[in-house]
């Protein structure tokens, strides 16, 4: 009797991990498909059993002629978000486990997931007077944008950074950070992260930090150490130059953003170039060490649209979230149109045309214009050579760029 063992290459046990195949194939009688025969039906049953899907049944979904986003254009009202966040402040503590009192936007096209778009996470975060949000770090790139209020300091790698109306505060991944509210009133702000993207590619990590901050980190300086090193236009500290995974400037002040937008429009009025279209000033937040986007996966920009201006329809691959900083107007995304006012948020799915009409005035805007903060996933698509944009100047006049 032979002692030889079966060759595992030829007598492998059947895979029993999937008792019922999730693959379902139906032979259909239509142009571009093979004739429906018993042999074809039997072939499809074999494909199902072995977890296989033939391209000829799926090519219309897998390779459409243009993006067909699952996310939808949607608007969230800031006053309603603020009301609900305030109610949460009285019911939900901040601490380990929950980590943050942050309430995420859930796009209606994404099945209830806490995602504003397939790649972007946006939330309102709310901190009561005297509260601390505990320290942690994560691979997700993040930022905070303040539409109103002040009194909270975010502490990044031990550096307390003040947060005030109009400030944009980027947070590259894996930097330890916490928050503390030194004011006598609550404060809310917009959080943005690339959580859905990192979740989809299964590359995310999270580390809890210390439960409490030391006395020095509870300081409330007017300028952070980051601001003192990197907050000088066109000037960089020679001792700190070198490759980085994101901007070292932890706060882009509203005074600088406002001045840049104002100057663009004043140059336009004087007959000089500077705006992206008539009545539409646009600035991009950039890394002072490279001029690139502030974060590897997130582009942040700020728009100022003069009252009465209607922007040309514009499309981009990838998705964006906008927040109204000041003013009012009418937003059209695809076949959806809304009125918006200060704080309101809305999403623009991939390749959906966006057009904006400013209806701002001195009564609802400090600048007299419609001011909009925008963040998008453009850096991801650019790195993959997938970013395209198109501005339609008229029915037969369009510009297309990649």
UniProtKB/TrEMBL annotation:
Family annotation (Gene3D superfamilies): Jelly Rolls
Name recorded for this polypeptide: Cupin domain-containing protein
Source superkingdom: Bacteria
Domain Cupin type-2 positions: 125-191
Matching CDD domains: cupin_GDO-like_C, cupin_GDO-like_N
Gene source species: Streptomyces ramulosus
Location of region: Disordered: 1-34
Pfam families: Cupin_2 (PF07883)
Amino acid composition bias (Basic and acidic residues), ranges on this chain: 1-12
Alphabetical keyword list: Dioxygenase, Oxidoreductase
């Amino acid at each position: 009797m032979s002692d030889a063992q079966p060759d595992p290459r030829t007598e492998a046990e059947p895979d029993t991990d999937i008792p019922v195949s999730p693959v379902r194939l139906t032979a259909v009688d239509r142009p571009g498909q093979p004739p429906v025969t018993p042999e074809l039906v039997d072939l499809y049953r074999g494909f199902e059993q072995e977890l296989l899907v033939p391209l000829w049944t799926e090519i219309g979904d897998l390779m459409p002629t243009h993006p067909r986003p699952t996310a939808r254009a949607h608007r969230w009202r800031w006053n309603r978000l603020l009301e609900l966040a305030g109610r949460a402040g009285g019911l939900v503590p901040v601490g380990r486990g929950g980590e943050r009192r942050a309430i995420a936007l859930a796009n209606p096209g994404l099945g209830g997931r806490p995602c504003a778009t397939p790649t972007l996470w946006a939330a309102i975060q709310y901190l009561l007077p005297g509260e601390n949000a505990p320290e942690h770090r994560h691979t997700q790139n993040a930022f905070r944008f303040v539409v109103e209020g002040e009194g909270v300091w975010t502490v990044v790698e031990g550096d307390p950074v003040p947060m005030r109306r109009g400030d944009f505060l980027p947070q590259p991944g894996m930097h330890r950070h916490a928050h503390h509210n030194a004011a006598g009133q609550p404060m809310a702000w917009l959080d943005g992260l690339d959580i859905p993207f990192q979740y989809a590619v299964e590359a995310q990590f999270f580390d809890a930090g210390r439960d409490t901050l030391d006395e020095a980190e509870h300081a409330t300086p007017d300028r952070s150490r980051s601001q003192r090193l990197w907050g000088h236009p066109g000037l960089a500290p020679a001792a700190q130059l070198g490759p980085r995974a994101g901007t070292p400037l932890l706060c882009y002040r509203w005074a600088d953003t406002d001045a840049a937008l104002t100057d663009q429009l004043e140059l336009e009025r004087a007959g000089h170039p500077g705006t992206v279209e008539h009545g539409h000033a646009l600035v991009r937040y950039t890394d002072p060490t490279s001029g690139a986007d502030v974060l590897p996966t997130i582009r942040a920009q700020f728009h100022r649209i003069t009252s009465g201006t209607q922007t040309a329809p514009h499309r981009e691959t990838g998705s964006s979230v906008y927040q109204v900083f000041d003013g009012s107007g009418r937003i059209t995304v695809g076949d959806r149109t809304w009125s918006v006012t200060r704080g309101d948020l809305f999403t623009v799915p991939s390749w959906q045309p966006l057009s904006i009409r400013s209806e701002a005035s001195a009564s609802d805007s400090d600048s007299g214009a419609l001011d909009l903060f925008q963040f998008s996933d453009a850096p991801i698509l650019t790195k993959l050579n997938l970013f395209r944009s198109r501005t339609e100047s008229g029915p037969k006049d369009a510009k297309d760029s990649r």
